[in-house]
C-alpha cells in the first residue's frame, strides 16, 4: 500500500529543503498545536545517518520514528527507510521519499511512502499530513 501527499510552499526549493532538514523544521513537521505536545528530534543528515523522532501528547504516549537516510540530493530529494514504533510496542518499516520541485515561484513538496501492510494503516497516516505540511509552510513563511 502506498501513500502520496503534496503541497506547494511559497519559498524556493533550497529554502524548503533546508527548513525541513533543520531541527526547527523537523519539530514543526511532527508537531501539533495541542498544549503539551512533545517532539524530540535528533538528526545526522548524511547518507547512512539516522533521524530519530519521538512525538506524542505525553511522555507516556510517544510514537517513535527512526529514519535512515539512503539518498540526500539537496535541494531536490531525500530517500529514507523508516521504522515506526507504535504505542503498543509493535513496529513496521516503510520506504519514504520527499521531493522538492520548483512550482509557480515556490516549491511543490511531495511525500511518498510505500510498504504499508494494510489500507487502514496507510489511511491512518494520511490524517496528520495536512497539519504537518501546513506547520512547516507557516514556519518557513515566518522566517
Automatic annotation (TrEMBL):
InterPro entries registered for this protein in UniProt: ASHA1/2-like_C, START-like_dom_sf
Name of the molecule in the record: SRPBCC domain-containing protein
Positions of the Activator of Hsp90 ATPase homologue 1/2-like C-terminal domain: 10-138
Family membership noted in the UniProt record: Belongs to the AHA1 family.
Native species: Solirubrobacter ginsenosidimutans
Gene3D superfamilies for the chain: 3.30.530.20
Domain of life: Bacteria
Pfam families listed in its UniProt record: AHSA1
Lineage, broadest ranks: Bacteria, Bacillati, Actinomycetota, Thermoleophilia, Solirubrobacterales
Amino acid at each position: 500500500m502506498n501513500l502520496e501527499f503534496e503541497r506547494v510552499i511559497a519559498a524556493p526549493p533550497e529554502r524548503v529543503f533546508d527548513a525541513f532538514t533543520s531541527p526547527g523544521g523537523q519539530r514543526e513537521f511532527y508537531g501539533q498545536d495541542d498544549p503539551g505536545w512533545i517532539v524530540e528530534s535528533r538528526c545526522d543528515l548524511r547518507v547512512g545517518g539516522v533521524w530519530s523522532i519521538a512525538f506524542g501528547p505525553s511522555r507516556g504516549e510517544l510514537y517513535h520514528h527512526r529514519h535512515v537516510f539512503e539518498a540526500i540530493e539537496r535541494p531536490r530529494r531525500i530517500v529514507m527507510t523508516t521504522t515506526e514504533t507504535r504505542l503498543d510496542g509493535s513496529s513496521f518499516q516503510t520506504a519514504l521519499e520527499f521531493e522538492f520541485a520548483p512550482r509557480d515561484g515556490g516549491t511543490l513538496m511531495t511525500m511518498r511512502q510505500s510498504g504499508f501492510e494494510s489500507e487502514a494503516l496507510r489511511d491512518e497516516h494520511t490524517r496528520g499530513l495536512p497539519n504537518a505540511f501546513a506547520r512547516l509552510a507557516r514556519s518557513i513563511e515566518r522566517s
